[in-house]
Amino acid sequence: MAVKPLSAVVVSVSVALLGATLTSCSSDDALVVYNAQHEQLMEELVPAFEKETGIDVELRNGKDLELAAQLVAEGKKSPADVFLTENSPAMAAVEREGLLAKLPEDVTAPIPEQYRPTSNAWTGFVARSTVLVYNTDQITEAELPASMLDLAKPEWKGKVSFSPTGADFQAIVAGVLATQGEEATRTWLEGLKANGTVYDGNNVVLESVNAGESPVGIIYHYYWYRDQAEAGEVSDNSKLHFFGNQDPGAFVSVSGAGVLANAKHKSDAEKFVGYLTGKTGQQGLADSYALEYPLNPEVQLDPPVKKFSELAPPAVAVSDLDSAAVVDMMTEVGFL
């Protein structure tokens, strides 16, 4: 399969559509952050960084591939100093376009090597685990598949739900592609299309499983844990299954942080990314509503969230996750 460059795949996202969120006036002194991470999370962390450093931050919020497309379209003229992603394929794509600066070692050192590229062009700072949520009234844990790939088999027809249009599921597909190869990934996607029910958003997948509309669903861990921490309204009839054993279904998706090569506030940008990877920022992540995994080993989530050290995800080089190839393949299969 011919793989298109990012500029051919995602720059087609309407730049005009992004204008409303990305062209607001900003102070020349403010650090401009193109943010595809959860807005609520950044709105918790940024004020603490501003208070500690005296650096003003302007968040310009959007989605992973849309903001990546915006950066490619703007090139050297981009006002962005920092790029934050929810999943790493968009960051890896921007890195391949040569738009990121190498980060200082003290900024990346707190994060284990497997969660940042060898280039040090960006770093992971928080992660989420792929899980299978299942309705406990409809299926037992013993009846669950041994691998996420098994959900493409005929016996799972009409029993699985997922949200293929979002960056979350596309990152999971990128993990399958990186570990299983193109042919196996296409076969899996075709099986899922035949078997599954498509919803718009992981939260809707969770709701559908909890309501008994679907016995199982593919989501990230934090959707279930967040609802449990609140009232359990859309999760009390379900549980999570962690595949482990380096299965593609145990894929850990990394949120990335990088400094633009043409950043106007490079020193402040490096301080911001260093705050996100350092102990103070990581503890802020752990204490937030997000319930995503901090990647600095000095900081851990409290129970009942499953320990990060127990996830046993597949080994995936974060810079190898190819968003363009995933978009092509999912389009061919009919998901996009």
From TrEMBL:
Give UniProt keywords alphabetically.
Ion transport, Iron, Iron transport, Metal-binding, Signal, Transport
Biological processes, Gene Ontology terms: iron ion transport; transmembrane transport
Q: What is a GO molecular function of this protein?
A: metal ion binding
The terms describing its cellular component in GO are: outer membrane-bounded periplasmic space
Q: Which InterPro entries match?
A: Ferric-bd, SBP_1_CS
Pfam families recorded for this chain? SBP_bac_6
Membrane among keywords:
no
Q: Where does Fe cation bind?
A: H38, E86, Y222, Y223
PANTHER family found in the cross-reference section: IRON-UTILIZATION PERIPLASMIC PROTEIN, THIAMINE-BINDING PERIPLASMIC PROTEIN-RELATED
Family assignment from sequence similarity? Belongs to the bacterial solute-binding protein 1 family.
- What's the protein name? Iron ABC transporter substrate-binding protein
